[in-house]
Amino acid sequence: MVNGVILKQAIISGANNICSQCDRINDLNIFPVPDGDTGTNMSMTISAAVKALEALDTDNAGEVAKATASAMLRGARGNSGVILSLLFRGFAKGLEGKSEATGKDLAKALGLGVDAAYKAVMKPTEGTILTVAREAFEESAKAVKKSNDPAEIFAVICEAAEESLNRTPELLPVLKKAGVVDAGGKGLLVIFEGMLSVIRDGVMIENTGNEINESTESEDAFRSAAAEFDEVINFTYCTEFIVGRDTEVTTPVEDLRAYLETIGDCVVVVDDEEIIKVHVHTEDPGNALQKGLGYGQLLTVKVENMKQQHENAKAENNKKKSKKKALKPQEPTEEIGFVAVAAGDGLEALFTDLGCNNVVSGGQSMNPSTDDIYEAVMATPAKTVFVLPNNKNIIMAAEQTAKIVEDREVVILPTKTIPQGITAMLAFDPDSDAVLNKGAMQDAFSTVSTGQVTFAARDSEFGMKKIKEGDIIALDNGKLTVSDKTPNKALMKLAKNMIDKSATFVTLIYGEGISEDEANEALSELEAKFGKDVDINLVEGNQPVYYYILGIEKEQ
Fold this sequence. Notes:
This protein is of the alpha+beta class.
């Protein structure tokens, strides 16, 4: 039998296991765009439960499961985190009122979680964490006919989950092409294996990776991993430069890479017929640049002090934590209020100007938790609160928020991008009621197309072309369509693909990696090409991850 003490230790062991393997799971993400990373989202979700369990003093399995489910729901980040929280909510329902759990209880509880997870996903995709969880449950349901031993049943769950995970490439061709298994399914298996270690062997797996907790701010992780996890910075200067290749130089580029590895780490050297792009962390940026000059002229140079960035990011992180603590629940006195999710000072100010009561810091690579959204909703003094996630990976967390708010109505407008959120807010009519506004705002943002220019976070393939980590890439409504050498060139290619005769208004939002001069240059090029037919507006968003976000409103 599994009592509350064993279940508590098992869940903490599962959390430790995925925290230790977080980076390996993140590496399974096959799309090259920087994202919330499955391993990080799942680790942060279950780590929210660890904090609650450490403060819980009970040997009742049902109470442990209930505390776990409640904490994970509030700490859920990203779609994978929400699905994980739903699976554990099944455990809470299945073990409700039980001081101890049998093997049959555990199997039934997993089944309830699988049902909840499938119902929460509008169009379930097989070959994902859903499949792994379902097939693990199905095998455990067969096993309980022969045994009611918790250790044996949980071993079957793990074995079936591993077999299902190994089959995911057969269900999703994109996984097979990349030669990987599903990241969410892998994360679930790792958690289950950590739990089995306690249930069967009485051994709690220790966390040998980075500590991940609810207070971690993903935006700072994007800007400086050192500030986020307090890692040791071995070299001071992040040095990046591009060399225009001298065709008369015959020295192999491999020699440059080999030299850089002797003076630093995190070396990336990418080259083609025209340029050599270099990234290195070193104490001697001058030596790195001098070596690069041996291959041609320097076209661009950027040297940043990572130790100073580390301190700045920590200070900014502390500032944000203080800001977050300032959110206090408000009585719902107004009729309608708004909460939006956005990253970047410019975008936060824009949504505030458009009428949002609270803006939750988050987006791509920095998915806020259900609790983050809940706090913002409760701090909005309105009887009906519209929530704009502005990212497809945040919609599920927002939907879970709506289920736990009791004293006001929460309406989720499923905006998947920042431009959709902006258009939705512009369509709000203060003289109309919540029902009519919901319809009008949904109709408005449904006409918006979104383009994004960013960098490749990992090696990948686009059509017949190989994409290298660090390359500039562009997405047309989430689909990778363009790669180029600079953000502005990629933007113009993207705009030519997306702006047609049906376009009525274009918004260009530039991020923290783009200077004002570069943004104005991009605006001038767009106006020269498309300005006769559409209005184009430039916005300073200061957003991370995306150099440019392109919003295109079209005729309905």
